[in-house]
Design a protein that fits this description.
adenylylsulfate kinase activity, EC 2.7.1.25, binds 3'-phosphate-adenosine-5'-phosphate sulfate, Rossmann fold, five-stranded parallel β-sheet, about 15% strand, 3 domains, ATP-binding, nucleotidyltransferase, Sulfate adenylyltransferase
């Protein structure tokens, strides 16, 4: 099959500038939906034609077709549900047929939608059919159940303006801008490379080979919208990509950033990515092993087979309108000092094959170890080291949890002083009592208020961690789910060290330093943790300390040893 790009403009959903100005004024009377970050990404690609032929968020009929057999109601291939999920309250306030304003998080109007459909989706079914399993270990299934609203709205969009991006503006292109660029420079065959990771030498080799094989120019087309939680942030990645771009022969290769919110849906995602690239005027698309793979399921197995994405893509290639280029697994052959496709090395037993896995690379970055030049480009390694300094230079959070009077504050204070004595990073103590005097002064002890209190502490600790400091938290934090949520927030930026101060309730009551247990027993304090309110004992804390017959100094020392063993402080 010979693919030549169709570089005629594709339809967008934007109205003219004058109409947009008028609509903006009129929209003041409409009910507004404040879009989530993922919905903003989806809306941008709906409006600029990246999701062509969609004309809006899916109707119920289209949604059912997409979920069940990857097709819109009219039979057109479309693998991913692009839906507007909202709250019950908002959905209930609307009539079908009504127009709503779609606004970004600062209230700027981006478009309007005429509501044609409103329904309660069967999310378990969506998870099974689209993502392959109703398992929260899949990031998109987790999003579906725990972040997305319960009601879906569908209907056509009228585009008013693009979401504003302040970063890398010159590197972002709509499908029509890319098409115009290809037309201008005479690129008739273009192979696109999708990525959400930094590029190293192996990627540079394989993409260049793919372009040669397809006799095409190369477009590095990284996703900068939303990728897999825990990925390297896009600011760092784009600086890395810019460094790698210089390594290709001049004028063969370009780069454009795609504000896509990935779902990590493997085979379906590959087909979706292909359709999006076809809309951007590309003729070829590289599909790799485990394309857009979400990692392991809750049983520790892969969600999809390694070549499922290639198989599904091949099956639908003609309809997608873009030709697949198989990804070659490139490895470094030491004796020949070059990268070669793994399956083309005839003398495997006589040569030394080198490879560094993603996990090994992260370990080396964490520990500040050498990353060899055969593996990556020095400029890329320098960028990565800036955002991933060794653990002993990163911020982290120590989160004490335990009953009132268990000794949390005393140990936390001792730890703070020891860390300050060591120096190097600022230390902040967020003690339960102190937080309740300041940050959470209006809160009581209901589950809702305790959760709010812990989420606030978690938010402050995550900011401290992000900025390279040490946060020591010492609340009771009785609920495991809330502790887990805080852990997730913080682990995006650094380590979360949960320390269970495991003093028994009997011992805490015996000590009764503040006389609160007595009052709780007398019923004068209600909802008292351990007496009349629950405490979920941590199942897998990084450390559990006993305080009965143990000096405070020794407890703090145990924490310090743990921090040392995790590489967070050096002896
Ligand atoms: S929580 O559950 O994490 O929000 O609690 P926290 O912010 O750590 O606040 C606990 C301190 O408040 C005092 N106190 C109570 N604790 C538990 N239950 C009830 N009902 C209650 N009422 C007041 C108590 O002194 C706790 O301090 P610590 O430092 O834990 O002894």
């Amino acid at each position: 099959m010979t693919m030549l790009s169709n570089l005629a403009p594709i339809p967008e959903l934007y109205v003219s500038y004058d109409s947009a100005q008028k609509l903006k004024v009129e929209a003041a009377d409409l009910k507004s939906w404040d879009l989530t970050p993922r919905q903003i990404c989806d809306l941008e690609l709906l409006m600029n034609g990246g999701f062509n032929p969609l004309k809006g968020f899916l109707s119920e009929e289209d949604y059912n077709g997409v979920v069940e057999n990857m097709r819109l109601a009219d039979g057109t291939l479309w693998p991913m549900p692009i839906t507007l999920d909202v709250s019950e309250d908002f959905a209930a306030s609307l009539e079908v047929g009504e127009d709503i304003a779609l606004r970004d998080q600062e209230g700027v109007i981006l478009g309007t939608m005429t509501i044609s459909d409103r329904w309660t989706p069967n999310k378990a079914r969506e998870a099974e059919k689209v993502f392959g399993a109703d398992d929260d270990a899949h990031p998109a299934v987790n999003y579906l159940h725990n972040t997305a609203g319960p009601i879906y709205l569908g209907g056509p969009i009228t585009g008013i303006q693009q979401p504003v991006h302040y970063d890398f503006r010159a590197r972002r292109d709509t499908p029509n801008e890319l098409r115009a660029f290809f037309r201008k420079v005479g690129w008739r065959r273009v192979v696109a490379f999708q990525t959400r990771n930094p590029l190293h030498r192996a990627h540079q080799e394989l993409t260049f080979r793919a372009a040669k094989e397809a006799q095409a120019n190369l477009l590095i087309h990284p996703v900068v919208g939303m990728t897999k939680p825990g990925d390297v942030d896009h600011f760092t990645r784009v600086r890395c990509y810019e460094a790698v771009l210089d390594k290709y022969p001049a004028a063969t290769t370009g780069m454009s950033l795609l504000n896509l919110a990935m779902r990590m849906a493997g085979p379906r995602e590959a087909v979706w990515h292909g359709l999006i690239r076809a809309n951007h005027g590309c003729t070829h698309f590289i599909v790799g092993r485990d394309h857009a793979g979400p990692g392991k399921n809750s049983a520790g197995e892969d969600f999809y087979g390694p070549y499922d994405a290639q198989d599904l893509f091949r099956e639908h290639q003609d309809e997608i309108g873009i030709e697949m280029v198989d990804f070659k697994h490139m490895v470094y052959v030491q004796e020949r000092a070059q990268y070669e496709p793994n399956d083309e090395i005839a003398d495997k037993d006589d040569v030394t094959i080198l490879n560094i896995s993603g996990t090994e690379l992260r370990r080396r970055l964490q520990e500040g170890l050498e990353i060899p030049e055969w593996f990556s480009f020095p400029e890329v390694v320098t960028e990565l080291r800036k955002t991933r300094p060794p653990r002993s230079k990163q911020g982290f959070t120590v989160f004490f949890t335990g009953f009132s009077g268990s000794g949390k504050s005393t140990i936390a204070n001792a730890l703070m002083v020891k860390l300050m004595e060591m120096g190097g990073r600022p230390v902040t103590l967020l003690d339960g009592d102190i937080v309740r005097k300041n940050l959470s002064s209006e809160l009581g002890f209901s589950k809702e208020h305790r959760d709010l209190n812990i989420r606030r502490i978690g938010y402050v600790a995550s900011e401290i961690t992000k900025n390279g400091g040490i946060a020591i938290c010492a609340p009771i934090a009785p609920y495991a789910t809330t502790r887990r949520a805080v852990r997730e927030d913080i682990e995006a930026f650094g380590a979360f060290v949960e320390v269970h101060v495991a003093t028994s309730i009997e011992e805490c009551e015996r000590r009764d330093r503040k006389g609160l247990y007595k009052l709780a027993r007398e019923g004068k304090i209600k909802e008292f943790t351990g007496i009349s309110d629950p405490y979920d004992v941590p199942e897998n804390p990084e450390l559990s300390v006993e305080t009965e017959n143990v000096e405070v100094d020794n407890c703090a020392h145990q924490v310090l040893l743990k921090l040392e063993s995790m590489g967070l402080v050096s002896a």
